[in-house]
Design a protein that fits this description.
five-stranded mixed β-barrel, elongated, OB fold (Dihydrolipoamide Acetyltransferase, E2P), about 130 residues, alpha/beta
């Protein structure tokens, strides 16, 4: 008994392939979710790929095409955003509390966050008055 490529069989194969493709996409997206942690968790190696933290900006400056931040939540860590937009530059002010999501990498022997997203949690009053 040979397998026939009838319209019904082609439809079944297409349906199975579509369902498997959707499951693969869901699995891939699930793997991209950041680990909710703290700077301490990053420093202790609990989040070695993608992390999400809430922290205060201790310092912020722009160097060429990169926004460099020093973040603090009881511990310090450096973070960098390459090619920041105007909104990201506006958010990145000393004293602001921010939510940062990014990839954790080693830079000169220390962990650093490569920022993918930065969002304002709470703006420092003086920073708001100066805008």
């Amino acid at each position: 008994m040979a397998f026939e490529l009838s319209d019904g069989n082609i439809a079944k194969i297409a349906l199975i392939a579509s369902v498997l493709g959707l499951l693969l996409v869901v699995f891939a997206l699930e793997q991209q979710k950041p680990t909710e942690t703290s700077i301490s968790g990053i420093l202790q190696g609990r989040a070695m790929q993608k992390a999400g933290i809430n922290a205060k900006i201790l310092s912020a400056y722009t160097a060429k095409n990169a926004l460099m931040l020093q973040l603090y939540d009881g511990n310090k860590i450096s973070a960098v955003k390459f090619n920041p937009g105007d909104e990201e530059r506006r958010i990145a002010k000393k004293g602001n509390f921010v939510r940062v999501v990014g990839s954790v990498r080693q830079y000169q022997g220390n962990p650093e966050i490569i920022i993918e997203k930065i969002a304002l949690i709470e703006q420092k009053l003086e920073a708001a008055e100066n805008d």
